[in-house]
Amino acid sequence: xxxxxxxxxxxxxxxxxxxxxxxxxxxxxxxxxxxxxxxxxxxxxxxxxxxxxxxxxxxxxxxxxxxxxxxxxxxxxxxxxxxxxxxxxxxxxxxxxxx
Length: 99
Description:
five-stranded mixed beta sheet; single chain; YaeB-like fold
């Protein structure tokens, strides 16, 4: 059964910023990033326990082909995505976002 999805408002901003950066490097690359992020989130919804715990009860799914990670929590049939971060960013940045 596919889990319900909740995206924190900051997540959309994370994705928009990453899209703009990649699209500025090469037209179409931002679209490829979006496709990979969507595929990662859909895989998380199908099997939310597949990724390891990164911090407390929060998990991290890696985006294929791009250096980004999706930080989420799974509880009671719901996946809540708190952010999509570049993997080279300071870990304190994504930890501060978690409730």
